[in-house]
Amino acid sequence: MRYGCRCCLILLIAVFIGSPLRSPAQVDVWSNGGVHPVTLKADADTATCTGCHSDIAKKKYVHTAIETGCKTCHQIQNEKGVTRVTLVAPVTQLCLTCHSLATNKVLHGPYKNGDCVVCHSPHSSDFRQHTWVAHQDICLGCHARARLKVNKKKKIVTTPWGVTLTFAQMTGWMFLNLDKTLTKNHPVEGHPISGPNTALGPKSPSITCMTCHNTHASNYTDMLIKTPPDPSQFLCMTCGLCLDCHSHLFP
Ligand code: HEC
Ligand code: HEC
Ligand code: HEC
Ligand code: HEC
Ligand code: HEC
Ligand code: HEC
Ligand code: HEC
């Protein structure tokens, strides 16, 4: 508990069971050096590719970059009868050839490292902003002890949607001390992190990680969306974040 305000509020949280996780098959596609199982002509066009990879851009949310063709990001090389399909730039730099990195003070570790495809499909997915799973499940995938598979021997972690990262890529990561249902106990004990916003009433949007945090970057500590609360001041007037929902608590 970092906050002094232990309030005698009755907390009623509808048990909110998150939608089941989907696991798009994610494999380490480049471990064989990009050797393609089928011989391709170096000038093969997008229609040729989608002839076999028909479902790659068929999910609900398609990445706009797909419109310019597969070869915007992939290159084909033929050598001694072996076809290799690789990326036109290292995977941690590819996305940044079109998207620029935020210049905020605080950058989220995986974002800063250019590990964009850890959270986003480069092609398409059934979730907004073509993330592999729903946004809340993306966050819980690394920050909930119950969701992240940790292999101490190999020094790797695996997310529920099948992406593997090394401990080095995960430098500084921490688990939240959540309850079993992964719906409460952060940022203070008993606090909801999902479900209806009972503090503001049924018309307000449900609470998610993104209610209080940005996903990539922010100018405030802990990647918060607003001036963080000051734990040393109970009647802190700049604790914008908490006051959004709890104005009655801090007169
Ligand atoms: C005749 C069918 C066929 C065509 C045409 C084809 N692929 Fe593939 N491709 C496959 C199969 C089969 C695999 C292996 C299984 C899988 O990953 O789906 C594969 C795997 C891949 C992989 C995974 C890594 C690798 O090299 O194994 C990439 C990337 C890829 N294809 C890109 C392309 C691109 C880009 C094109 C168009 C230039 C293309 N493919 C055209 C059948 C095809
Ligand atoms: C915006 C860049 C981009 C475009 C455009 C793109 N790809 Fe990819 N593709 C990638 C990246 C990056 C990976 C590696 C993903 C990873 O490491 O998780 C990949 C992996 C793949 C794979 C292997 C993994 C998988 O998802 O099955 C296939 C097959 C593939 N691409 C086919 C295609 C085809 C076919 C097209 C054109 C319709 C295409 N790609 C267009 C960036 C792109
Ligand atoms: C060839 C240029 C290009 C490359 C390379 C590229 N993108 Fe994009 N991306 C675009 C364009 C264009 C848009 C649509 C305009 C926008 O929203 O900024 C877009 C949109 C997006 C969106 C927002 C989708 C939405 O619904 O709001 C995401 C997420 C994204 N890209 C992720 C990636 C990732 C991850 C990579 C690397 C695998 C990548 N992009 C590489 C051009 C690119
Ligand atoms: C930790 C997971 C994660 C990583 C890593 C990540 N993103 Fe995102 N990204 C998200 C989520 C979740 C959203 C949706 C944010 C929202 O709606 O508030 C998003 C939104 C976006 C958007 C659309 C909104 C915007 O900010 O323009 C783009 C484009 C994008 N990401 C590109 C990237 C690129 C490029 C990288 C790598 C440099 C990257 N992302 C790394 C999770 C991630
Ligand atoms: C791939 C694993 C991964 C995913 C997915 C992920 N995180 Fe993180 N997160 C990390 C790592 C590693 C750190 C520690 C490095 C750092 O400080 O950014 C971190 C740090 C943070 C921090 C503390 C930042 C700081 O400066 O103290 C916040 C807040 C955070 N993550 C929120 C989120 C949210 C919200 C999501 C979902 C959009 C999310 N994370 C998804 C790996 C992940
Ligand atoms: C009601 C607002 C709120 C919500 C919702 C929320 N957080 Fe936080 N989070 C905070 C505040 C405030 C802090 C900084 C105080 C602290 O460290 O306890 C913080 C800190 C963090 C940190 C850094 C923890 C550390 O020990 O340094 C991570 C990681 C994090 N949040 C991830 C998440 C994730 C993932 C979710 C969704 C499952 C989430 N948060 C939902 C307000 C929130
Ligand atoms: C998006 C709205 C929202 C934000 C922002 C928010 N809270 Fe809450 N908070 C709630 C809801 C909903 C509850 C549960 C029902 C209630 O108390 O009204 C709650 C409950 C609490 C409780 C009581 C927990 C219990 O066990 O009964 C405390 C203490 C609390 N919040 C403190 C904070 C602090 C400190 C912050 C700023 C870091 C904050 N809240 C930010 C919505 C929010």
Plain-language structure description:
The chain is 14% helix and 12% strand. The protein is elongated, with a radius of gyration of 22 Å. The two termini are 21 Å apart. The chain has a domain at 3-89. The strands form four sheets. Strands 6-7-8 form a three-stranded antiparallel β-sheet, with no helix packed on it. A two-stranded antiparallel ribbon has the order 1-5. It has a two-stranded antiparallel sheet with strand order 2-3. It has helices spanning 46-52, 91-94, 109-112, 135-143, 209-212, 240-246; strands at residues 61-62, 74-79, 82-87, 106-107, 124-125, 149-151, 156-158, 164-166, 217-218. Mean pLDDT is 85; it is low at 1-27. Strand 2 and strand 3 form a beta hairpin. The chain is largely without helices or strands. Bound molecules: heme C (7 copies). Residues 29, 34-38, 40, 44, 48-49, 51-53, 70, 74, 76, 85 line the site of one heme C (HEC).
List the helices and strands and how they pair.
Layout: H1 46-52, E1 61-62, E2 74-79, E3 82-87, H2 91-94, E4 106-107, H3 109-112, E5 124-125, H4 135-143, E6 149-151, E7 156-158, E8 164-166, H5 209-212, E9 217-218, H6 240-246
Antiparallel strand pairs: 1-5, 2-3, 4-9, 6-7, 7-8
One heme C binds next to helix 1 and strand 2.
